[in-house]
Amino acid sequence: MRHCSLPARDLRLLDPLFIYPSTILGRENAIVVSLEQIRCIITADEVILMNSLDANVVQYKSELCKRLQTIKEQSDDLPFEFRALELALELTCMSLDAQVKELEMEIYPVLDELASSISTLNLERVRRLKGYLLALTQRVQKVCDEIEHLMDDDSDMAEMYLTEKKQRRELYPVESYGQTSVFCRSIVQSKSTPVSPVGSINAVYKLQRAFSSLSSSKHGSLIGSSNCGENIDQLEMLLEAYFVVIDNTLNKLLSLKEYIDDTEDLINIKLGNVQNQLIKFELLLTAATFVATIFAVVTGIFGMNFESSVFDYPNTFNWVLIITGVFCGFLYVSLLVYFRHKKIFAS
């Protein structure tokens, strides 16, 4: 905390025991980076890594050492802190993109199989993959939003120029401003009290020195601000490159989600079609049951034990059965024609 002048809440973001969303913070003397498993503090000349035993952190450390060795052999004006930040963004984007590709290879066959064969096992696999997809989408979206937030705020990007701020502090230390204020204060006091000619000469000399120091400090601050303005474009282009990469990864996840939604719509259509077929079949059974009930009522009436002249002629009961059967058949056909006329059944 004292070495980097960071508040305690920034250090909590780097604790590997806690789960925090991806964050990139620019501070006065450091850049706090928390991107997935890569959590570190970047200063103008060093990187402090958290959870150094993690495989991603080990890869980050080895790759950063290789790139720093390569930079020594080549001439490049990119500051150290931006190289460390660039590597963290690169490894994070590569890791997220690899997870998305792995998810694509797993989820597309499962969705195709589910579309062709709806089963409980396939539905459970899709439910599990969809949950993982939503969690991964939130992580990618957070990284994308963080990069976009940095690109939209010039002051946050300016805070990340640690090397330039360190050089300005070395060229224009804080003591110079204190001396200037002392000169100005002594001049004001000399104006308010009567002085001798020798004292006035010394006051004029001090006034000249004060104006010269003020002009030099103003000139230095203008140079620093102009350089910072130029380098903001450099950092912005660096962030834009990885914003395009992470945005492409996010589009892949959105395409996956749309494919899952389309598959769910297809399954709902198929289930709706099956349900309609069952309803039609149930309607046919209901109509047939109604007709059979009429026939059963007639036969039940004649099966009762009562005296009637109809029973004196055996062929009469046969004719009753024939007429009742023909009537029931005609009624059933009439019901089918009515259903088709109402477009309940397809023609």
User: What is the count of helical runs?
Assistant: 9
**End-to-end span in angstroms?**
80 Å
Strand order of the largest sheet: 1-2-3-4
Low-confidence stretches: 175-230
Inertia-based shape? rod-shaped
Largest sheet: number of strands, sense, barrel closure: 4 strands, antiparallel
Folded structure, characterized:
The structure is a single chain. The chain has a 4-stranded antiparallel beta sheet. A hairpin with a 2-residue loop joins β2 and β3. The longest helix is centred in the C-terminal third of the chain and has 106 residues, at 197-302. The protein is mainly α. The protein has 9 helices and 4 strands, in the order αββββαααααααα. The radius of gyration is 42 Å and the shape is rod-shaped. α3 runs antiparallel to α4 (120-152) and α8 packs antiparallel against α9 (314-341). The model is unreliable at 175-230 (pLDDT under 50). 76% of the residues lie in helices and 5% in strands. It starts with 7 loop residues before the first helix and ends in a 6-residue tail after the last helix.
Short description:
The protein is built from nine helices and four strands, in the order H-E-E-E-E-H-H-H-H-H-H-H-H. With 347 residues, it is mostly helical.
Topology:
Blueprint (H helix, E strand, L loop, with lengths): L7 H6 L9 E4 L4 E5 L2 E5 L4 E3 L5 H19 L6 H37 L3 H33 L1 H6 L2 H10 L2 H19 L4 H106 L11 H28 L6
Antiparallel strand pairs: 1-2, 2-3, 3-4
